[in-house]
Write a structure and sequence with these properties.
- Two copies of one chain form a homodimer.
- Helix content of chain A is 64%, strand content 9%.
- The first copy, chain A, is built from six helices and three strands.
- The longest helix of chain A is centred in the last third of the chain and has 39 residues.
- β3 of chain A pairs antiparallel with β3 of chain B, so a sheet runs across the interface.
- Chain A binds a DNA duplex through α1 and α2.
Chain lengths: 168, 168
Amino acid sequence: MREASGYEIKKMIEEDVFGHFIEASYGSIYPALGRMTEEGLLSVRSEEQAGKPDKKVYTITPSGLSELAMALEVDPAKDKFRSEFLFQMLLGEMLPANHLALIYEAQIDYLREEIARIKQRGDESEQHDGMQFVSKYGIVSLSAGLNYLEENKQEFLGRLNKAKATKQ
Amino acid sequence: MREASGYEIKKMIEEDVFGHFIEASYGSIYPALGRMTEEGLLSVRSEEQAGKPDKKVYTITPSGLSELAMALEVDPAKDKFRSEFLFQMLLGEMLPANHLALIYEAQIDYLREEIARIKQRGDESEQHDGMQFVSKYGIVSLSAGLNYLEENKQEFLGRLNKAKATKQ
DNA sequence: TGACTTTATATCAATTTGATATATGTTCAG
DNA sequence: CTGAACATATATCAAATTGATATAAAGTCA
């Protein structure tokens, strides 16, 4: 278990592979860090830095570690997936054709970048089993979506245009 | 655009195909319905029902329709995916082998059900283009994940057990 | 040089969740 | 045939979360 500051935790969630299925903002991270320190689950060490505010480096305590182990031993909640892109596709008939084509392409780019990012992180450092497992899971899921978008682009955009033309 | 009550909207999100990528609770649906009615985006009609509270059936107004069209004409936010299952896999080494195997199997079942549900809804009623598109997107994404879980089950669970044995 | 990005913590209004309250009808096992 | 559980239906609320903003200084780059 590595040590980290609140800022570094946020960065990890944004940039590391597991950012694919975990999310948290400063407004939840900092209060959680404070509360968990009070409860003895974490210990803090302040690193002084010229100018910048002190960097508070948190480390998990033995107590925190056993609490974590307990917290993991429950049935996980269902996966949650939200996609404004798919919502816009669902109501595609209401959108101008050029905007639809634009966001379709943007989504393809976004998925390509996301997959590339996960792959790259995996290559950079050798990962433990769990990290490798979730990385590959992310890659296959996102790739399936990307592949679907690439294969159905012409047909879907074309069909929607025809559907709209018919309605007018 | 069909008409619906708050309760029916919740049911749709839970049970219909687009529930795969949309979520909302009563605490957000009812206030939103009220606010949007005040703003003239929706109209309400109360259906009296013996015993049960009146069913409030909402319909989108022309004003609401044009507001919706405008709201759709923006760049969609990034997809969000959260998975406690993957989080537990990430930290798989901290979990007892039997619990790990249990939730692994449960996740496979969950994905199978989810895929079956989307497929079934598609067969039940002929869908418009957008609905068909998002249904298939969901099916291919979830299937890729399911497939990955099925193919890597032995190896991943076995490797984690070995890793834990080594550490002790 | 001046604008933008990065490091770093923290707070806050607004929104959202998940749970609960209320009330009645339906369904199904024992 | 009864009683428990589930479904219909609206609504609210504490607690959690988001997304934005504040503060402050260093580094980067045109």
